[in-house]
Amino acid sequence: MGMKSTQVQVLAVLLLACAVAAQESAGSEAERRRLLANGLGNTPPMGWNSWNHFHCIINETVIRETADALVSTGLSKLGYHYVNIDDCWAELNRDAEGNLVPRKSTFPSGMKALADYVHSKGLKLGIYSDAGYLTCSKTMPGSLGYEQKDADAFAAWGIDYLKYDNCNNGGSRPTVRYPVMTRALMNAGRPIFFSLCEWGDLHPALWGFRIGNSWRTTNDINDSWESMVSRADENEVYADYARPGGWNDPDMLEVGNGGMTKGEYIVHFSLWAISKAPLLIGCDVRNITGETMEILSNEEVIAINQDPLGVQAKKVRMEGNQEIWAGPLSGYRTAVLLLNRGEEDSEPITANWDDLGIPPDTLVEARDVWKHETMKQYLKNELTTTVGPHACKLFILTPVMPAQ
Ligand code: GLA
Predict the structure, then answer these.
(1) Confidence of residue 337 (pLDDT cuts 50, 70, 90)
(2) Is 223 a known active-site residue?
(3) What Enzyme Commission number(s) does the record list for this chain (predicted)?
């Protein structure tokens, strides 16, 4: 039975609609890939940010002296390259042409001069704006409606990193506002690391990788144990979404700000390292103590964070106060963190190969990256160690090939 001409017409229209839809989705897919093509963030970013220690009390001297200190302490050589200015760097009002104006009383030399200085030290300069009408401090404008103008200014100044906050946005969705800045940065033509600071409100791990190099998964951290471990927990849920080029961000480091013990700061740095979180120092590097240096400059822990495989560790076992976090590293190695969340007692904690995804009976060499010691005995099927209250141990396990 043949089709009537009206049926043929309906079919033709339907086919055309399908073809258009297919083309559109291919177009937007290509567009999405193009959005991300800045080539940055193949490993989590490392550097410093002004907010956790200085809040709004910043000026160009603090930024220059911090750049100097990153170099003189040796931290820059370990990978801490970004010097990131947070909120409160601009005048409340744009100029007559609509440009952002660096605050005259605190940044009188302007951002180009500051970027030149930071670059002359072999470092990179980061800046802050907001996908809203005002930033969170309400002391300076956000970039909503001015994305291209601001991105062009950032590129012209030589900015290398943009943290983009989410305050005072008029209520529209971040998935609408953030990609506009992504496109503006791409148009501006300078590779600028794009850090989405949306606080995890709309599960940015699910869409952030298309438009940014990192995305906050949590509200702001403060300098306390409870705040720190809860950020790590909230961030862990999204482990599967981290990958080279795009990272979950549980907020910046508080190490060295004084609110936690040394053992707690070691837990903080260890959790951030294995979670492939940005390692953005949040203390006053100009007055850094030996103890804080010891933590932030542990090259073995940094190497876990910067491992080329780029896989975020997960919580693989929880029992009472005890937790095991683990994740694969390059070269068939495994990073394993044994954490005691209890407040009072030391506890023996056991990580089984089964929990870690290591095949049974595999012989393993274990290196304690805080003690900088390799265990004399090879291990089989489990690692047991005693861990103090609010403390952790962090090991790299390397399989040992049986002798032929
Ligand atoms: C928000 C962000 C913080 C910081 C402040 C600045 O709270 O989440 O990281 O940038 O704004 O006002």
Answers:
(1) very high
(2) no
(3) 3.2.1.22
Residues 207 and 72 in one domain: yes
280 lies in which domain range?
A: 46-306
Q: Cα–Cα distance between 117 and 121 in angstroms, integer? A: 7
Closest Cα to residue 73, out of 292, 331, 376?
Answer: 292
Is the CB of residue 215 below 6 angstroms from any atom belonging to ligand 1?
no
pLDDT tens-digit series, residues 249-280: 999 999 999 999 999 999 999 999 999 999 99
Domain boundary among 306, 336, 358: 306
Residue 19 lies in a domain: no
What CATH number does residue 366 fall under? 2.60.40.1180
Please count the other Cβ atoms lying within 10 Å of the Cβ belonging to residue 56: 14
Q: Which residues contact 26 (CB under 8 A, 6 or more apart)?
A: none
In a domain? residue 2: no
Give the DSSP letter string of 100-157. Answer: --B-TTT-TTHHHHHHHHHHHTT-EEEEEEESSSB-TTSSSB--TT-HHHHHHHHHHH
Final residue in a domain of this structure, among 283, 306, 329? 306
Task: Please state the atom number of ligand 1 nearest to the C-alpha of residue 137.
Answer: 12
Residue type, 234: E
CA distance 371 to 247: 28
Q: State the total domains in the chain.
A: 2
Nearest protein Cα to ligand 1, atom 9: 220
**Has residue 10 been placed in a domain?**
no
pLDDT grade, residue 23 (50/70/90)? very low
Residue % of the chain over a pLDDT of 70: 90
Mean of per-residue pLDDT scores for the chain? 93
The alpha carbon dihedral of 17, 21, 22, 23 has a sign of: positive
Instruction: Give me ligand 1 centre to Cα 113, in Å.
Output: 25
Q: What is the mean pLDDT of residues 113-137?
A: 98
Q: Phi/psi class of residue 206: alpha, beta or left (left: φ > 0; alpha: ψ in -120 to 50)?
A: alpha
pLDDT in tens, 218-257: 999 999 999 999 999 999 999 999 999 999 999 999 999 9
Considering the domain boundaries, does residue 352 fall inside one?
Answer: yes
Give the 3-state secondary structure of residue 322.
strand
- Between CA 50 and CA 63 the distance in angstroms is 8
Q: Give catalytic status of residue 354 as yes or no.
A: no
| Pocket test residue of 58, 163, 165, 254 for ligand 1, highest count of atoms within 8 A of CB | 165
